[in-house]
Amino acid sequence: MNKIQSELARVLVRGIFLAGLLTATLATGWASEKLPTARPESVGISSERLARIDEYFQRFIDDKQIAGAVTLVARHGKVVHHSALGWKYREQDIPMTTDTIFYLASMTKPIVSTALMMLFEEGRFRLDDPISDWIPEYADHMVLVNDGPRQRSVPEARPVTIRHVLTHTSGLTLDPENSGLSAEEMLWVSNNGKPFATLGERVVRAAMIPGTFHPGDHWLYGTSTDFVAVLVEKISGQSLDQFLRERIFEPLGMVDTYYNIPRSKVERVAATYTLNEANEAELQIAPQFIEPTTYFPGTSRLNSTSSDYIRFAQMIANGGELEGVRLLGRMTVDLMISNHTGDKDVYVRGPGYGFGLGFGVLVDPTVSFDTLSPGSYGWGGARGTLYYADPVEDLIGLMFIQLPNHGPLNIRQRFTNVVSQSVVDSVADQKPIVKGYAIPR
């Protein structure tokens, strides 16, 4: 082979390699199916100020408090920032990428609540129907109350409704500890300490556990969305995994969202870290293949990418539609992102928040940690993920880290502020939208 032939062969091989790489990239979905992008200035955002997001997270990485992060910002339906910093698996020197798969934890809840509201739109139930219409074991449910120095079980003052489980005001729990059950009853509700095959089986047995308060009296963050999940299964006749895949993930092009991550995608999973005594992140859970399960909670366990989750978030922000695919009507979305809990303390999200049907809702920005408009909504996950949308500014922010004990860092509480400061356009000619309706400025 002469020198010219050798060079042509080298170019051909490199071309084949690059074509294969491009094909693999497109196959992941994050390159070909993400939302349209735009220059930040074209949607009223400063590129210079937007760069502060990376600077913010890089400080945590440099201080060894997190291993890595993925962040995404969209305005007016256009992605203006999508960044990956640090490592997805630091110990193996594997860099973070924008297609990294994260454990969502409680960011599962808005998706599962959306599934139930899709059935609501089919006329399958009213929000104030009792859950015992589908889970009859809860027809005569009891509540644990204090009677002086003792506790006793009494009948519920009112039935647990679908609205109660969507808003975390049900008082229901799957935890039998300190519930006054006998040793024999404890074994029954805990399946003798063995894993339940399905969430539905566990929920049925848990009917023996008295509620922590009368339905509607308080807001308690816990397992209410597991009851939402079982209702989806009972009403639809499908497993939750199947319903989400057929009715939400596939229509929206969410190609990397799973309860059971395929073995072929494990290499894209982010490792989970924990803060040690030196306030530095150390490995807690390495990426690994987990055998598929048939237990599909509503509270957690979905895994996804930033590119997938923005498609769900933008669908909600658009009033239930994305790229011609409509999952919900606008009025239903407005109902979901309205406050249903009055002045009850939604302590998980912090001061100023109420709760809608699957979403935390900002009611009073003047006492909130966040620089967001009234009516902003979203939710976060225990390992450090966060999703929010500001409907007045038509702005969505996503952050993904994997650090369960991130609380002392206040990293999520400051994220909204770092994003909001990048918005620089004039409000003179805008007609802001809150919960689907234009309001005067």
Explain what this protein looks like in three dimensions:
The protein contains 12 helices and 18 strands. With 441 residues, it is α+β, with helices and mostly antiparallel strands. It has a domain at 118-236: DD-peptidase/beta-lactamase superfamily (Beta-lactamase, 3-Layer(aba) Sandwich). Strands 3-2-1-16-15-14-13-12 form an 8-stranded antiparallel sheet, sandwiched between helices. A two-stranded antiparallel ribbon has the order 4-9. A hairpin with a 2-residue loop joins strand 5 and strand 6. Helix 4 crosses helix 8. The longest helix is centred in the first third of the chain and has 26 residues, at 3-28. The radius of gyration is 23 Å and the shape is globular. The termini are far apart. 44% of the residues are buried. The model is unreliable at 1-33 (pLDDT under 50).
What is the highest CATH level, the class of the domain at 118-236? Alpha Beta
How large is the radius of gyration? 23 Å
The backbone outline, from C-alpha atoms, is globular
Named CATH topology of the domain at 118-236: Beta-lactamase
N-to-C order of helices and strands:
HHHEEEEHEEHHHHHEEEHEEHEEEEEHEE
Task: Give, in spatial order, the strands making up the sheet with the most strands.
Answer: 3-2-1-16-15-14-13-12
Please, how many helices?
A: 12
The largest sheet is:
8 strands, antiparallel
Which structural class matches the secondary elements? alpha+beta
- Beta-strand content bin: 15-25%
Mean pLDDT: 90
- Separation, N- and C-terminal Cα atoms: 74 Å
Percentage of residues assigned to helices: 25-40%
By CATH, the superfamily of the domain at 118-236 comes out as DD-peptidase/beta-lactamase superfamily
Given as residue ranges, the uncertain stretches (5+ residues, pLDDT < 50) are 1-33
Query: Care to count the β-strands?
Result: 18
- CATH architecture designation of the domain at 118-236: 3-Layer(aba) Sandwich
